[in-house]
């Protein structure tokens, strides 16, 4: 399964955990495939995508995620900052 297919197949906590591990491996094994090569650039790109994602969801026919979904993503980033 390619990177985007794996991202699109995330539908629960376990598949998200597996995707994140796969992303970490891909970053190590395929650094030239990553436009944002450090955490600061990656977080800025994530912020930009979140700000602009309305059109992505509109074209896919899916609703914009709920407030709780966004809060969970924020908690994920905050926790990863200190979690070992």
Which helices and strands appear, and what pairs or packs with what?
Elements: H1 3-8, H2 13-29, H3 39-52, H4 54-60, H5 67-80
Can you walk through the features of this model?
This protein has helices at 3-8, 13-29, 39-52, 54-60, 67-80. The chain has 2 domains: 1-34; 36-84, no CATH class. It is built from 5 helices and no strands. The chain is an all-alpha fold. The model has no long low-confidence stretch (mean pLDDT 94).
What is the N-to-C succession of helices and strands?
A: HHHHH
Task: Kindly state the number of beta strands.
Answer: 0
Q: Any idea what the shape is?
A: globular
Distance between the termini: 28 Å
Radius of gyration: 14 Å
Helices and strands: which structural class?
mainly alpha
**Helical content band:** 55-70%
Sheet-strand content, in percent, reads: under 5%
Oligomer: single chain
Largest sheet: none
Quote the average pLDDT.
Answer: 94
* Total individual domains: 2
Count of runs of 4 or more consecutive helical residues: 5
Low-confidence stretches: none
